[in-house]
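re: that chain from earlier
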Amino acid sequence: MSWLDGDDDEPDGFDAWDESDVRVRPNPKGNRPRTKVRPAHEDAVEGRVLSVDRGRYTVLVDADTPGEHTATATRARELRDQAIVTNDRVDLVGDVSGEPGTLARIVRIRPRTTLLRRSADDSDAVERVIVANADQLMIVVAAANPEPRPRLVDRYLVAAYDAGIQPLMVITKTDLADPEPFLANFAGLDIPVVRSAQGAWPVDELTPLLAGHTTVAVGHSGVGKSTLVNELVPGTDRATGVVNAVTGRGRHTSSSTVSLRVPTGGWIIDTPGVRSFGLGHVDPANVMRGFPDLAAVAEDCPRGCTHAADAPDCALDEAVERGELDPARVDSLRRLLASLARLEA
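^ sequence. v structure.
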């Protein structure tokens, strides 16, 4: 009979074993109990996101101090469902020294003052945040090559006013064409306009307008936006391109959004060139904010007026008939309203 049959011939010490002697395999993810209580990170330091590249963030730490430097960071797990974008103010923990091979962690996004957004197209209500905390939008337009697009500029204006950002316009390549016919589309708007001179970039005219502001540069591919940024911030070396001689379209060159300090004061954020700027995220009721000259006239419209082309007794039509409004401006507004109205249908 063996000791397995329950006799007294067990191996020495076997009768002293119990369940507490059995070793339990540890949790491969660690034995620390899970909790929803997140650390306060009271030792976190503030930083400014300068650029985003495939899950890695270049962050400016100790800005405007002798110890100013950049650090590379990743996002904390608790922020995995939140977008972190260029010019966000964030809190960092971990190794924020910026030394090669180090990696900090973004644990908080500070409250944003503004958000410039766009959608892929007007049928897409999913917004894509371009930059945070900007207060000025610099719309760069070429007088020719590529041809200026008033409707695209209208869309920039709607997005700017919707975000509470003030616009300004820069006209490049004025040696190729007279920009005045194009600018006539926006004669009713109080927008600063800077024109490039013959063979020169308008750096001296622009720098006072940029000082003290965080400015986002946007524009159609090929208008010279990144070249202008290189002139404003020497040594930046943002990628530039040329316009296709057959299609008249510019090539996408800058592929990332980056925030740069202007030596003469302020910050400028260069964005990739686009050929479309969807407004699917914008409430149609806010579109009029992009046309303050028309909004003043529309105050005389009947209650509930849609301002569409078939709207009865619309004050916009009456102002056009009297020669007080440019029909092209009214048409631009109505195109946007019609496009956005289809989203609600």
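The domain at 115-270 is CATH 3.40.50.300 (Rossmann fold).
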